[in-house]
UniProtKB/TrEMBL annotation:
Keywords: Signal. It comes from Culicoides nubeculosus (Biting midge). This is Secreted salivary protein. Residues 1-22 form the signal peptide. The keyword Signal applies. It comes from the Eukaryota.
């Protein structure tokens, strides 16, 4: 009875180690903003500028979640751009000088919590075996 459970635990640990190694590779995901094809003027310029910001993620699920956060922030900026003729691309660029730095800090925190959560789940599953 102990041999099958030992084999199961060993297989689980091998899969977990492989999964952890895969999670260490972070993929950059650009284009969080989707620009309408018929946009023009400052709106189009700002939207294209916002597409240069990126998030990093070890998997698609977390990537989708983080991308939606960047998209929400971008939508707030785009709402301001669409409501005022006085907003220019230069003004937006000036306001967003530290935007990627902020994204990176929050991104690192999210990945750290994501990995911690996955490790906790792995340990709980190993304890239940």
């Amino acid at each position: 009875m102990k041999i099958p459970s030992l084999i199961i635990v060993t297989l689980f640990l091998v899969i977990s180690i492989t999964n952890v190694r895969a999670q260490r590779r972070l993929e950059k995901i650009y284009d969080a903003m989707e620009c309408p094809p018929r946009s023009s003027g400052t709106y189009k310029k700002v939207c294209n500028f916002l597409q240069n910001f990126y998030i990093k993620s070890p998997d698609k699920k977390l990537g989708s979640y983080l991308k939606s956060g960047v998209q929400e922030a971008g939508n707030r900026i785009m709402r301001t751009v669409s409501q005022s003729d006085k907003v220019t691309l230069q003004i937006v660029k000036g306001c967003l000088l530290n935007f990627q730095v902020t994204i990176n800090k929050l991104n690192e925190e999210a990945i750290r919590k994501h990995r911690s959560c996955k490790m906790d789940v792995s340990l709980k599953l190993a304890d239940n075996s």
